[in-house]
Amino acid sequence: MQTQSIALSPPTLTEIAAALQSPLAANYAHATVKVVHCPDLRAAPFHLATAGLSGAEKISDVGGEPNLFPTPRLECKYNLLDIARAMEMSPDGGGLLGAGAGPFHVVGRNCELVPNIAWSAGFQNATNGTYLAQIKQGLPRVEKSPSLDCALMINLYGSLGQPGPVVKLTARGRVGAEKSITELMQKALAGAFGERMVSLGGVFVVKKGKSKYHIMPDFPPKDELPFKNAKQLNNWLTYHDFEAPVVCLSVLHSADPGKKLGLRMEHTHCASMDGRNVGGHYHGDIDGEEVEYEGYFNVAKTLYRIEKPEVTLERDLHE
């Protein structure tokens, strides 16, 4: 896989927690950000494939939105374990989590992916806790992924999966204008650290309240392609309001200096993991008074840009 690696020099977790505290406190009636020893994230309500988020912490951005817009590039198919190898992760143990596009070539339709895997024994013994969200017969369907594949684009946080210090955040009762807690975090880090790249990955639970998500439907017919603008793309997506609890896996960056890497600055996918057909790409809460979050994040020491598209169309997508 075409891979570029960048060594990062991130601030300490204490500095990151301090940068997040004031913005969260201004946006929520109650908010705390502190450095703690990571609990066992394999347990409810998080259900991660690894116990923690520590050890050889890395982040990757694979593919990108240009693989979807203006015309889906269906040849862009990847495997999570192949990505782990490209990230130079230990074959003896580790895990990946994040947000991306699902294996349409396996499930038979386009879908959202909530990647959550662990491995040991030379990548041979893999635990697949990955979920996918799709539109099936016109309705949302959220279920375990039958595959370790993904497609088009994916953002991943990887580590040895060990316990260790992490940033814990809690927030409830939104009083500010920012509906997305991860977009708020991304903006806070950008404001605090400027062009210094700070890349976080982790998990949070929407414990209470209703939030907005989108799920990509199947690819449009060829006569409706290419997507001509962001409005057409957004009209193609399906939007849903789902009740908590929902588990969300997230990757975010404070900066892409010079926009040279074509990074997706924030990407969060979620699944209910309790049998309900609830999940997709997280946008933020819709009833701020009721919303409540609890999350755990760690910072990457290395960034991997993998299979970068030749053309980056992020500006065109979001204008």
TrEMBL record:
Signal sequence, start to end: none
Domain DUF1907: 19-306
Keyword set, alphabetical order: Hydrolase, Metal-binding, Nucleus, Zinc
Stored SUPFAM superfamilies: AF0104/ALDC/Ptd012-like
InterPro entries: C11orf54_DUF1907 (IPR015021)
Family annotation (CDD domains): DUF1907 (cd17298)
Keyword Cell inner membrane: no
Pfam families to which the protein is assigned, alphabetical: DUF1907 (PF08925)
Main subcellular location of this protein, as a coarse class: nucleus
GO molecular function, one term: zinc ion binding
Gene Ontology terms: cellular component: nucleus
Subunit structure: Monomer.
Database matches in PANTHER family: ESTER HYDROLASE C11ORF54, PTD012 PROTEIN
Name this protein carries in UniProt: DUF1907 domain-containing protein
